[in-house]
Design brief:
The structure is a single chain. By secondary structure, the protein is of the alpha+beta class. Helices cover 30% and strands 14% of the residues. Among the domains are: 80 residues, Ubiquitin-like (UB roll) (Roll), CATH 3.10.20.740; 48 residues, Alpha-Beta Plaits, CATH 3.30.70. A hairpin with a 2-residue loop joins strand 1 and strand 2. Helix 2 runs antiparallel to helix 3. The longest helix is centred in the C-terminal third of the chain and has 20 residues. It is flat.
């Protein structure tokens, strides 16, 4: 069985196991949008990215999607390095600029401390092209009623020839699994592309070691840092 090192932990996994599955087995949380355990991996959202290198060349690292990358011998995996976290937050900013009305995206942004959206053209699209609905219809419901059509900015999900599908069972599986269909807490009249009502604090261990060292949710250290920050803000306001 391939032996890998993931966040400093040496472990053997069965051949064919993906890095995302390996991380989940060890209790390491990696965010995803297009992944579902009951569906085939797609690698569209890229939020599950990790940083990998090999034992014989540890300084030559690259970013890969963990849901589609299989375990390999002598692989070194960092799931929460500074490089990974920066890239994930940028991706979440892009999703906020594309579909800010999604509660799932807003919750992910708050959890991974995305406190700004630097993209000015907010689009409010109704699809992020994660492909969950297409795979749900094909693999779980055996309907194959919808699919991707066209390319580039014209790409969309629809029925064949944009006509009413005779194979659609009206099961609602596509709506159930769609991350863009779940409205954010503020309802349809939100004023900002980012909510941050449930924002988490940036793990202080990133600044010290360039990797997260604790994967508890919530982390006791981070919670203490958060309480101290709130207390300092209160003292500052009183002194004013």
């Amino acid at each position: 069985m391939p032996k890998i090192r993931i966040n400093g932990i040496d472990f053997e996994f069965e051949k064919g196991t993906t890095l995302l599955e390996a991380a989940k087995f060890l209790g390491i949380e990696i965010p995803t949008l297009c992944y579902n355990e009951g569906l085939s991996p797609y690698g569209a959202c890229r939020l599950c990215i990790v940083e990998i290198s090999y034992a014989n060349n540890p300084n030559n690292s690259k970013i890969v999607s963990s849901c589609t990358y299989p375990v390999e011998d002598n692989l070194i995996v960092r799931t929460h390095s500074q490089r990974v976290m920066r890239t994930r937050r940028l991706l979440l900013e892009m999703y906020l600029a594309t579909c800010p009305q999604s509660k799932i995206i807003q919750d992910l942004a708050s959890k991974w401390e995305v406190t700004q959206c630097r993209f000015r053209n907010i689009r409010y699209d109704d699809c992020i092209y994660c492909g969950l609905c297409v795979r749900m219809c094909k693999e779980q419901m055996d309907g194959k009623a919808i699919s991707f059509v066209q390319r580039g900015y014209k790409r969309k999900i629809t029925t064949p020839f944009d006509k009413k599908s005779e194979t659609c069972r009206l099961c609602g599986g596509c709506i159930y699994i769609c991350p863009a269909c779940q409205a954010r807490c503020q309802g349809p009249n939100e004023k900002e592309p980012i909510c941050n009502a449930c924002v988490a604090e940036n793990p202080p261990c990133l600044e010290a070691w360039e990797d997260m060292k604790c994967y508890m949710d919530p982390c006791a250290w981070c919670e203490q840092e958060k309480r101290e920050k709130i207390r300092n803000e209160k003292v500052k306001n009183i002194n004013k």
